[in-house]
Amino acid sequence: AGVGKTSTACTVASRLGIPFLDTGAMYRAVTWIVSDNGVNPADIGAVNRLIARTKFRFAQGKNSVHFWVNNQEITDQLRTPEITQAVTAVCEIHDVRVYLVKLQREWAARGFGVMEGRDIATVVLPEVGLKIFMTARPDVRALRRAKELGISDDKQAIAKLASELAERDRRDTEREDSPLRTANDAIVIDNSDLNFTEQVD
């Protein structure tokens, strides 16, 4: 979390002139649906029924992927602290993962592109031609996230962010369904000491 996956992948795709899919935003979109309808993520049956009756679509815009729920665009509502806090619980629901992985594989089957997410190279597309695993030191990731939120001068807030990122990584790594791990044939890029242009290059 907070390593710069989305911004890097989007920029790489733009440079290459090929499509980009932010799968993390797909999980955020489902989280928005669950939250907007007041459904408890622990009630898996209610979550599944909600998804089944929801019209969910996405398409690539100029600089990002856009999302609609029942013809309402929700793209700008997916990066709020509330969604960020709730998304891990939704990611852990097996049926949600099955539903979104199916959509992701359908997207990839159309040709080629850059797909970003935590389980792409290990679960979604294990036979994909190029796998990149991006990482960075926890303190670096926390500071980057703080800068995004405009709180980089608040040491307490940065410490809290670092703790939240570590907890999210722990839960993602330890979950039974599609855990976060490095594919054996992935190229690992530690961008702790790289600027954005260098990591895109």
Note down, in words, how this protein is organized.
- The protein is an alpha/beta fold and 201 residues long.
- It contains nine helices and seven strands.
- It has helices at residues 5-16, 23-36, 44-52, 81-91, 94-109, 120-124, 138-149, 155-174, 196-200, and strands at 20-22, 56-60, 65-69, 72-73, 114-116, 132-135, 187-190.
- The strands form three sheets. Strands 2-3-4 form a three-stranded antiparallel β-sheet, covered by helices on one side.
- Strand 2 (56-60) and strand 3 (65-69) form a beta hairpin.
- Helix 2 (23-36) crosses helix 5 (94-109).
- The longest helix is centred in the C-terminal third of the chain and has 20 residues, at 155-174.
- The mean pLDDT is 88.
Count of DSSP E strands? 7
**Content of β-strand:** 5-15%
**Radius of gyration in whole Å, from Cα?**
17 Å
The run of helices and strands is HEHHEEEHHEHEHHEH
Spans where pLDDT lies below 50 across 5 or more residues: none
Spell out the key features of this protein.
201 residues, three-stranded antiparallel β-sheet, 9 helices
Provide the fold topology.
Layout: H1 5-16, E1 20-22, H2 23-36, H3 44-52, E2 56-60, E3 65-69, E4 72-73, H4 81-91, H5 94-109, E5 114-116, H6 120-124, E6 132-135, H7 138-149, H8 155-174, E7 187-190, H9 196-200
Parallel strand pairs: 1-5, 6-7
Antiparallel strand pairs: 2-3, 3-4
Summarize the structure.
The protein has helices at residues 5-16, 23-36, 44-52, 81-91, 94-109, 120-124, 138-149, 155-174, 196-200, and strands at 20-22, 56-60, 65-69, 72-73, 114-116, 132-135, 187-190. With 201 residues, the chain is an alpha/beta fold. A 3-stranded antiparallel beta sheet has the order 2-3-4, with helices on one face. A two-stranded parallel ribbon has the order 1-5. A two-stranded parallel ribbon has the order 6-7.
